[in-house]
Amino acid sequence: MQLTALVLILLGLTYAGFRMGRRRAVAVSAGRAEKLHSLPAYYGLYLVIWCALPAFALLAVWLAFETSIVTELARGTLPADQQNLPKARLNLLINDIRNLAAGDIASGQADAAIRAAGERYKSLENASFAAMAVLCIALAAGGIAVGRRRIAPVLRARNLVERTIMGFLLAASVIAVVTTIGIVLSLLFEAARFFEQVSISEFLFGLDWSPQIALRADQVASAGAFGAVPIFAGTALISAIAMAVAVPIGLLSAIYMAEYATSRVRAFAKPALEILAGIPTVVYGFFAALTIAPALRESGAHFGLSIASESALAAGLVMGIMIIPFVSSLSDDVITAVPQALREGSYGLGATRSETIIRVVLPAALPGIVGSILLAASRAIGETMIVVMAAGLTAKLTANPFEAVTTVTVQIVTLLVGDQEFDSPKTLAAFALGLALFVVTLCLNVIAFRVVQKYREVYD
């Protein structure tokens, strides 16, 4: 609550700085805006930069280091024997100190030293926040004062504001790129540790998947089996079923809404279809496990078919329903964006509406359609909740959609559930599976880029 109040105060000062900057610009120009280098609003934004940027930068840095510094100072009040405890026990002790500072709650009976450390932690935390608040408010007010004195008709406020915004955009791009590189490197590093213990050929071409590592060497499956072919096959099977449902329905609905539907029908149908994209995936998982799977099992029994309660067909059908909006909405936007001149030229040559759609509109919109299908495929391959709840956990190499199969994402969730130590092949196998999933998605992106590049040259 205190931090929220401080942020609101800083935002209020920022808004006041904006208004003061505009008024100051009008005042120094004697009410003649043409004398100013920039519009008055840019001088307001100039003061916003002077006010908000230093204050919020200090706030972010302070909050980043406050906890560790306060914890270290509070830890110094403990007796020497408690400060030299093993790392795990010391961490529990520090958690007790923080809990006592927050609400007089501890995991056990707290002695006098721990209570004293908790009180010390609370007092340090209050003092730290007070100092942070005073410095941030003073920095914001000082920034307004300094920036206000610098406002003059010759000040290039627009250039300074645009350079600052460009800097923020560049920083956001760098953060995104660095984050991507960090994810890839973490996958590569942990996967390399896995492949030091399990050969790549066994992982990529092995037909048995049983990653359970026994505690004793004489137990069953003490070495584990890490052949990922059944997992890849299960992922491909469920994704293929989902795409077989989503692509025809999504593409045909997009063609109808873009070329045939009236404005009244389109205004209702398009938002109604896109609601499917807003439903949480866990709801789809419940729907698949409690409705679709039993219905398929009972329907199969009438025809003498044995359909598992957790079948690939149930998971694939529900996943296909979920990704219909990814195909329909994007394809509809792309088809609508095709220039009307192409349609009119086709009609002028005597083509019918269906011939125009098939021979002119769809080829012109093909790059965007391929992109929408790629997005749907990536969504299907990486889906977790539906397959966790509706598909099986046992890796089985089969192409029968009526049987239970498992997927890469299900196995990653299974391997990383609970307290794990990242030094066994069982846990590290999740990173190898994640790396394989990343490579497959990257290949799909490259293929789609080539297709888009080829046809864009023809229809641009």
Order of strands across the widest beta sheet? 1-2
Per CATH, the class of the largest domain reads: Mainly Alpha
Average pLDDT metric: 82
Tell me the name of the CATH homologous superfamily of the largest domain.
MetI-like
- The number of helical elements comes to 16
Tally of separate domains:
3
Shape: flat
Would you identify the regions where 5 or more consecutive residues have pLDDT less than 50?
none
Task: Give the name of the CATH architecture of the largest domain.
Answer: Orthogonal Bundle
Q: Helicity level, as a percent range? A: over 70%
Largest beta-sheet details = 2 strands, antiparallel
Overview in brief:
The protein is mainly α and 460 residues long. Helix content is 77%, strand content 1%. It has three domains: 2-155, no CATH class; 156-197; 225-459, MetI-like (MetI-like fold).
